[in-house]
Amino acid sequence: MAALEEEFTLSSVVLSAGPEGLLGVEQSDKTDQFLVTDSGRTVILYKVSDQKPLGSWSVKQGQIITCPAVCNFQTGEYVVVHDNKVLRIWNNEDVNLDKVFKATLSAEVYRILSVQGTEPLVLFKEGAVRGLEALLADPQQKIETVISDEEVIKWTKFFIVFRHRVLIFITEKHGNYFAYVQMFNSRILTKYTLLLGQDENSVVESFTASVDRKFISLMSLSSDGCIYETLIPIRPTDPEKNQSLVRSLLLKAVVSDNTQNGVALTALDQDHVAVLGSPLAASKECLSVWNIKFQTLQTSKELSQGTSGQVWYYGEHLFMLHGKSLTVIPYKCEVSSLAGALGKLKHSQDPGTHVVPHFVNWETPQGCGLGFQNSEQSRRILRRRKIEVSLQPEVPPSKQLLSTIMKDSEKHIEVEVRKFLALKQTPDFHTVVGDTVTGLLERCKAEPSFYPRNCLMQLIQTHVLSYSLCPDLMEIALKKKDVQLLQLCLQQFPDIPESVTCACLKIFLSIGDDSLQETDVSMESVFDYSNSVHDEKMEEQTEILQNGFNPEEDKCNNCDQELNKKPQDETKESTSCPVVQKRAALLNAILHSAFSETFLLPHLKDIPAQHITLFLKYLYFLYLKCSENATMTLPGIHPPTLNQIMDWICLLLDANFTVVVMMPEAKRLLINLYKLVKSQITVYSELNKIEVSFRELQKLNQEKNNRGLYSIEVLELF
Length: 718
Prior knowledge:
Elements: E1 3-4, E2 8-9, E3 24-27, E4 33-37, E5 42-47, E6 52-58, E7 65-72, E8 77-82, E9 86-90, E10 101-104, E11 109-113, E12 121-124, E13 129-131, H1 132-137, E14 152-161, E15 164-173, E16 176-183, E17 188-195, E18 204-211, E19 215-222, E20 227-233, E21 243-246, E22 248-251, E23 264-267, E24 272-277, E25 286-291, E26 296-302, E27 312-314, E28 317-322, E29 325-332, H2 338-341, H3 376-391, H4 397-404, H5 410-422, H6 429-446, H7 453-460, H8 471-480, H9 483-492, H10 498-510, H11 513-517, H12 535-539, H13 557-564, H14 568-571, H15 581-592, H16 597-604, H17 609-626, H18 642-660, H19 667-703
């Protein structure tokens, strides 16, 4: 179980923290010494155990430090950048930064990153990376541009994975986020597009990451107060291709979505994260520790004086600005277990005993321990565990996944599915995906409470499934009335039977607007109908637009009289969308689906008449929108076509005309549809009249071959 101990102020010196707080806190070459860089001109070296500063260095008046100072662990020196391009290097004996080593670079620096066991890296604002030694050999070397225009780096992290250096940095452009992963052993730079899912309007407030043998677990705290996770493969399948990654919900509503001073997120280990922010809208800021494995709140501490929305973690200490002073909160954590996560772990230690996290780090060359001393007995235990692990046969990821889905929790299955999909596709990939969906659906039938919708959606988006491979999928989704999953199936499956398409249509038309507001659906086929610039013009229109043709005589006088008597509220009926936008997106998925008229018509007769009328009103509205421009198309990414709209109008009328014609509320709609058909007939009639003239012109063109190079002709059309 995790615990936060009593906080203490690192120094009585009030730091120069600007509106955005400190620039950073970085580890020094000594375990309990840290470099603190304020937002002005000063770098201070603190010793935490003594709670006092060991040294302080400042740049000249008029200069400003632009990225946090770091320690070069290979030399014990300190490195900082001021005024974006001026790099300074010094040690503990130096007093004046103006007299230490100086190098002026050719491009602006975003951050210097340093970890033990390797030289520091310099990340430039344009996305290029250089080793410190190579940069000092030629400070004015040309720095290439890696990221695109208007793309801004938001966060970065430096890892050592199997003694190989891995750098990740996140950029943002117009609300879109991208991840760049640099592998220095192979010099491969891979770019990923981070998809925010359905909540595309949310803003990412903070990033953090942890790493294992295959993946970088990128966690983000968004403006909606939720923590999301994105798994980024360390070894990309196709480095040259810009790949997309979808994030998944990790923890919900950990902070309020209107926190005043910002929020922060940092990973403590693979199972715990620290969150800084207000848990409720009216509450004070708190530092909270969450167990992401069991999704439980472990502990929290109220910070009454407010913070800058920043937190740093090193070893067993959390650093933050509390009020205007830098505060340290010691942190301890035991082995992550369900009993510990629920606060039911029995402690045999004294209350004051400091518990060290019990984690084995197999990658550290020194073989750092399990939380106890490196005795001969402990070394024998480690060797024995390594031998046991090495003797166990390696189980293929596909079999591991199939075994997981039969017994584990939905959250764990979701993580394993994402890991499997992130791996390089194998020859049996299609088979494994099909078997996984089949296994999940069998468990859904056996356990009614089990419904891993996120896993199913991820598997559908692999584009290897079809209705015939997993017919139970849409059957279960129909029982659950999961319109988001049904919409995705309609978009992805090419072989959906007409009976299932009609079943989806029934649900899309019958589900309440309140239920739709709480549902995430894809809106790419829908544009903002409420902001149409043609609405006012359409309201004044008393007759159907006839593709540019308006006959002088109208033989349907009775219809005209009916239209002229319409009240004001009915005038707006045809010019405003009769359904909410989310329902429109679902109905558009129906319009895009493939069908056979012979097999579809019998099922359309089973839909209630009021729902048929609503669907016809929506189709008529789409037709009017198509008529607003010469191309007869709708705006949007993937809107319905005019042919699809007209086909479904005809199908609905053929199947239900005798029922709809008896409904008083459908009378005006049928009159409008009649005039729609009449206008089309009139247009085609006029086109047939001029077809003869075009044929004569074609004959004349064929006779031109017998004439000279130049001639003037006058053609009269009657």
